[in-house]
Amino acid sequence: MNNAFEIIGGKPLKGEIIPQGAKNEALQILSAVLLTKEKVTISNIPDIKDVNKLIELLGDMGVVVERLAPDTYSFEAKDIDQNFFQSDAFRNKGGSLRGSVMIVGPLLARFGKAAIPKPGGDKIGRRRLDTHFLGFEKLGAKFNYDPESGFFNVDASDLKGTYILLDEASVTGTANVVMAAVLAKGTTTIYNAACEPYLQQLCKMLNRMGAKISGIGSNLLTIEGVTVLKGTEHRLLPDMIEIGSFIGLAAMTGSEITIKDVHYDELGMIPDVFRKLGIRIERKGDDIYIPAQKHYEIETFIDGAIMTIADAPWPGFTPDLLSIVLVVAIQAKGSVLIHQKMFESRLFFVDKLLDMGAQIILCDPHRATVIGLDNQVQLRGISMTSPDIRAGVSLLIAALSAQGKSTIYNIEQIERGYQHIDERLRALGADIKRI
């Protein structure tokens, strides 16, 4: 079945690793190809399930898709088959793909209508789609849920720019509303907009296509509607979640690792948060170099209080790396409180770390205190199942640092987010194989 990794841990790794293109950016940028009849070429696309499914879905809709290189595709959305959106094929594919909601904004903007199957996907807390739908409604779209077919039918034949205050700074919600607004009549203002690098990348790409978006990088975006967009070329940023994961991996396994081409200036506070755990991180050009370290000591606050690391909307620390920080803290010297503010139930994988010998107190669904072992005691390998993408990679890092053999089941969860992760780790000297 090949759906488990077997890992023999406790070996230091060494070498260079190149992060893949950003998955979260890919899902938005790929959806944006629907906004124009002209050709759009995108490079640095990660070869992972969620992204490949969306590319396949675009092809099913009638987009002409060409693969120009392993990580580069061109898309031409000249003729879109409107009937496809009422089909069973769309319900099955669209319903199983978290990112498929991202095609709604572009479809509404360009064709004035769309249908969306009720979404499913990753169980990491209750992620609502209200932000998307409320934004579309403010622009003038009308929603009609058909319980028979399980589709939302959306009529947006007359989208008009307006003032929108988003109920939460959702990255996908902001992106979707931006894509709907670029072709709407008049001016749209989006306040409490997400301002992640992914979103800045999308806005810059749309502007190259002829959109008029200002305020990029802030939480107040102004969009002057235009009538038509043209083709462009775009290169995805490297995935900052991967970069953070590799920093954590190097520290936890005491390895000397160079992470290549990281677009350092787009990483926000990520390097600094890992430095708070005592990890030495050196910037070399656009690479991050992490020397082999036997010990790393968690800083305290200036008054001596225990360090707290919490997530927050960008430019705060991304929630996707909180589980990595938690795992890396296990072998640090000192203690840290991990506070997951933005989602619930993401910390429940700590029971597996406890089985491995970690010292962690789970305070409640949002907070865990890690008491560092300072490498005095090694974790021990166990068999475990990965509950979701983020926890999966954290458990993988723990297993690589542990004494003996670990088996991780349900690895399709990991592979939804990280391409060929086992091959790339083997290249660093990791003992990992599929069973």
TrEMBL record:
Phosphoenolpyruvate binds at residues 23-24. UDP-N-acetyl-alpha-D-glucosamine binds at residues 98, 320, 342. It comes from the Bacteria. The active site is at residue 122. Pathway: Cell wall biogenesis; peptidoglycan biosynthesis. GO terms for biological process: cell division; cell wall organization; peptidoglycan biosynthetic process; regulation of cell shape; UDP-N-acetylgalactosamine biosynthetic process. It is found in: Cytoplasm. It holds the Pfam family EPSP_synthase. Gene3D superfamilies: Enolpyruvate transferase domain. GO terms for molecular function: UDP-N-acetylglucosamine 1-carboxyvinyltransferase activity. InterPro entries: Enolpyruvate_Tfrase_dom (IPR001986), Enolpyruvate_Tfrase_sf (IPR036968), MurA_subfamily (IPR050068), RNA3'P_cycl/enolpyr_Trfase_a/b (IPR013792), UDP_GlcNAc_COvinyl_MurA (IPR005750). The keyword Cell wall biogenesis/degradation applies. It is an enzyme of class 2 (transferase). Its EC number is 2.5.1.7. Residues 9-425 form the Enolpyruvate transferase domain. It catalyses: phosphoenolpyruvate + UDP-N-acetyl-alpha-D-glucosamine = UDP-N-acetyl-3-O-(1-carboxyvinyl)-alpha-D-glucosamine + phosphate. Keywords: Cell cycle, Cell division, Cell shape, Cell wall biogenesis/degradation, Cytoplasm, Peptidoglycan synthesis, Transferase. The keyword Cell wall biogenesis/degradation applies. GO terms for cellular component: cytoplasm. Cell wall formation. Adds enolpyruvyl to UDP-N-acetylglucosamine. Belongs to the EPSP synthase family. MurA subfamily. This is UDP-N-acetylglucosamine 1-carboxyvinyltransferase. It comes from Mucilaginibacter ginsenosidivorans. The lineage of its organism: Bacteria, Pseudomonadati, Bacteroidota, Sphingobacteriia, Sphingobacteriales. The gene is murA.
